[in-house]
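Hi everyone,

Forwarding the result from last night's run.
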Amino acid sequence: MNKHLNELIELSNNDKAIDSYTPQLEAADKKIAKIQKKMDAAQDELDTLDADIVDNEAKVKTFEEQLTLLNEQLSSNAKKLKEISTEKEMKALSLEEDIAKEKMTFANEEIERLQGINETKKALLEEASEKVTALAAEFKAMDEVVSVEKAEIEKAKGELFVKREELSRNLEQKVLAFYEKIRIWAGNTAVVPVKKQACYGCYMKLNDKTYAEVIKADEIVNCPHCGRILYLEPVTAEA
């Protein structure tokens, strides 16, 4: 087999090995991202509950201030009652008191309703807080595991990159440039085997002349259909 072809096959296999770690790194990152997503959702729920409670407490305070003003109004009306001399003034004061009392009833009902809602939300807030704490602990534990996994993967990749540098140095630069040019669009299928007289990159059948050249392996042969570099696997060659 052509020396350069052998070197290209080895380089291609090394590149495939390097890129095979990418899905593993992505899978490791997804483990973290999955828990992070849960944490973010739990934190959003916690923040929403907390904001709702604060908002309701502000509304309760507003109603309490309204009650204070209404009480003062009723006290003032009681003093005015002693000074009333006409029936018209009496009716006007009575109507004012009725409206004030209705407002007070509504304010008291709203205070009771909002406080009831807040009691429920505070219970939910406690649950949400516990959930966030549990997820934070889970995230920390997973992050430690994933960090170890990624460190091992990066170490293995580093060794393969060192090997790639060595293979690249030993390969004729013109041949390396030719390989890299194909690899830009073909990725890890820049160098592919021929099986059943077909290119295993584009799966198109080779004509007899090209197939014969691949079998001889005296020169680097490209697929006439897709341009990938072709070779015959040793087992197939022996057969």
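The longest strand covers residues 191-195.

Cheers,
N.
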